[in-house]
Amino acid sequence: MKTKPLSQDPGSKRYAYRVNKEENRKELKHVKIDETTLPKKSNGKKSSLMELPKKRFYRQRAHSNPFSDHQLEYPKSPSDMDWSRLYPYYKDESTGKMTNKVTIADIGCGFGGLLIDLSPKFPQDLILGMEIRVQVTNYVEDRIIALRNNNVTKQGYQNINVLRGNAMKFLPNFFEKGQLNKMFFCFPDPHFKQRKHKARIVTTTLLSEYAYVLKEGEGVVYTITDVEDLHLWMVKHLEAHPLFERLDEEWEKNDECVQIMRNATEEGKKVERKKGAKYIACFRRISNPEIII
Ligand SMILES: C[S@@+](CC[C@H](N)C(=O)[O-])C[C@H]1O[C@@H](n2cnc3c(N)ncnc32)[C@H](O)[C@@H]1O
User: Fold this and answer.
1) Which locations, inside or outside the cell, does it occupy (predicted)?
2) Which domains, ranges and CATH numbers included, belong to the chain?
3) Of 10-19, 45-54, 258-267, which has the strongest mean pLDDT?
4) Which of 55, 110, 277, 278 is deepest in the core (most CB within 10 A)?
């Protein structure tokens, strides 16, 4: 007889953990976390610390097919997106409008390390991780809920959040033209086999979408990988695209985000532990060329 995976076996620790976290997530995911939402201890007093989620309880397959229909929810257009559900702290209660916009996106954010390290460095920016895998997204949501809760007095981590989504399909549904200042592609899935290259997150068609959502003349695409072949592929496609130009090593050396992305993400840390190579390439979204009639 086939046994159920631990995540579906009501007697397992993983099942109980997930159920508990899901209840917590449902309750706190969209609310503004402040002193009133702090969890109660068994003695009825408010406790200030919430345990950070444990990665081992969120295991799932390493890859998710970016071409399958994941029944994802996405807005019809950016104006239909209610960002206050992800960043309630930035909703102006008197006007009902958001005070800040999402300007930084971490595509395929994995377990969220980059979001967390960027958060205090960019307090005026809302930072969004987009992640296709359900359990990984749940982990990042739980991590952010706990961090917001544990840093409630200094309003920490209110400017980061994660969305389950397929960045290869719906980016223009979420972001207006020119909305983003920075897009990160940290250790994207390499899809080694030639017939799988079309699943890579950097292709000519997708670059045109990234150029659309990035700020003209200013937006930057950051890439980092430990796979040389993928690095060369990303550089080749970005260099061939008419709306991107490569930033030089001097620029990389002086850019704060390049330093952060080297070691902030979980993959980056793994590569560091194994003393593997890290290949970086950054590109500016240049201004649209003038059309001369
Ligand atoms: C190798 S991991 C890197 C994660 C993270 N950036 C890091 O450096 O630790 C690649 C991540 O991209 C996610 N991903 C792959 N294709 C995606 C897509 N089309 N949209 C959103 N996320 C995607 C995967 O689920 C995975 O978590």
Assistant:
1) Nucleus
2) 6-37+49-58+70-285 (3.40.50.150)
3) 258-267
4) 110
CA–CA separation, 8 and 208 (whole Å): 41
> In whole angstroms, how far apart are CA 164 and each of 134, 240, 249?
7, 30, 33
CA distance linking residue 155 with residue 159, whole number of Å: 9
Helices and strands in the chain, H and E counts: 9, 7
**Distance from residue 48's CA to the centre of ligand 1 (Å):** 32
Which of 45-49, 233-237, 271-275 is least confident?
A: 45-49
Q: Find the largest Cα–Cα distance for the chain.
A: 76
pLDDT per position as a tens digit, 114-163: 999 999 999 999 999 999 999 999 999 999 999 999 999 999 999 999 99
9 is a catalytic site residue:
no
Distance in Å, CA 85 to ligand 1 centroid: 23
Q: Counting every residue, how long is the chain? A: 293
Instruction: Kindly list the distances between the CA atom of residue 104 and the CA atoms of 29, 62, 81, 96, in Å, as whole numbers in the listed order.
Output: 20, 25, 16, 22
Percent of the chain with pLDDT over 90: 77
> Partners of 130 in the beta sheet?
107, 163
CA distance 9 to 55: 18
Give dist(CA 88, CA 240) in Å, integer. Answer: 40
Query: In angstroms, what CA-CA distances link 201 with 105, 257, 275, 281?
Result: 14, 20, 25, 15
Per-residue pLDDT averaged across 276-284, rounded?
A: 98
- The set of protein residues with a Cβ atom below 6 angstroms from ligand 1 is 64, 66, 108-110, 130-133, 136, 166-168, 186-189, 201, 265-268
